[in-house]
């Protein structure tokens, strides 16, 4: 290729465009080669009978994908940020996996929610998604085998845990196979019939209204705040209403073609929500993992000390401890605990065995790759 330069020895715009075209052609060939390798992987797995606990061939391997994305982020030379580079590779991996077997998943709907955004962040746009009206319906859909995975919210950094999700685990045999941490940005949205100065009603989910309370107090102190079932429902409702606005995210704004009057109105700049991926198979260690358990303790003096002692002894990093009322009787409680490490790690296995000696029941919800922002 001739290297035509300007009078000052600089590369011209035409030169750069030719170079970009050549790079695009190289990328196209490499992505196609990767897709062909994915097809060969599927053939090898089918021939080898690589089945999981559910008796099905395991095309999707959470631990493997986590390892690939971590490696991509660690070796990323820039100028694109590591998270953006991981998102691009996630879409390539999603499309390649769809050649083997498209992933089917249910999520807490409706369309346009942050849960759908988390599902796409984790599985990519090639996954086949199905919105459900309630968290327990997501669990039932996975348990029935209608989908392979479910995506449900479990906690927000400012508003705390989602109790419906914790309660659903208490009566389910499903396992946690992954987590997604999503940075939450709320926007004030209006339809074509509303101007900012005429806003008299603001719709959103109760948690989103709470996460934007200070901003609303400062900018719309007299507007009526109306809690609805989801941010996406708020966006749908204001699409045709007069003098109303919705607090929702980018997906809802795009889905319902709403105008952003104000962006990023959340009170906490590091507002994030953690989502869990649920399925029916255990996940092998990825090298950077987390384990979630439910523990029922006997109602006796020193029970909380007995619960925490094995973790302290083995220097296990606890990342979350929550209590919920037990279904076995009044004033009995169970503990939901998250900690770093995989259940197959010798130190974690020892800790779990120590817990079983003092607890009435220990249920491992799953060990899974640690999610990243």
TrEMBL record:
The annotated site for Essential for prephenate dehydratase activity falls at 273
Q: List UniProt keywords, sorted A-Z.
A: Amino-acid biosynthesis, Aromatic amino acid biosynthesis, Cytoplasm, Isomerase, Lyase, Multifunctional enzyme, Phenylalanine biosynthesis
A single Gene Ontology biological process assigned to it is: chorismate metabolic process
Where does it localize?
Cytoplasm
| Catalytic reaction equation(s) | chorismate = prephenate; prephenate + H(+) = 3-phenylpyruvate + CO2 + H2O
Please state every residue range assigned to the domain named Chorismate mutase.
Answer: 7-104
Superkingdom of origin: Bacteria
Instruction: Give GO cellular component annotations, separated by semicolons.
Output: cytoplasm
Tell me the pathway: Metabolic intermediate biosynthesis; prephenate biosynthesis; prephenate from chorismate: step 1/1; Amino-acid biosynthesis; L-phenylalanine biosynthesis; phenylpyruvate from prephenate: step 1/1
Q: Which Gene3D superfamilies match?
A: 3.30.70.260, Chorismate mutase, Periplasmic binding protein-like II
Q: Cite a single Pfam family from the UniProt record.
A: PDT
Q: Which residues form the Prephenate dehydratase domain?
A: 104-280
Q: What is its EC number?
A: 4.2.1.51, 5.4.99.5
Task: Indicate the segments forming the ACT domain, all copies.
Answer: 292-369
GO molecular function annotation: chorismate mutase activity; prephenate dehydratase activity
The record ties this protein, via InterPro entries, to: ACT-like_dom_sf, ACT_dom, Chor_mutase/pphenate_deHydtase, Chorismate_II_sf, CM_dom_sf, CM_II_prokaryot, G/b/e-P-prot_chorismate_mutase, Preph_deHydtase
Q: Which SUPFAM superfamilies match?
A: ACT-like, Chorismate mutase II, Periplasmic binding protein-like II
Quote the function comment for this protein: Catalyzes the Claisen rearrangement of chorismate to prephenate and the decarboxylation/dehydration of prephenate to phenylpyruvate.
What this protein is called in its record is Bifunctional chorismate mutase/prephenate dehydratase
Q: Species name for this entry?
A: Cobetia crustatorum
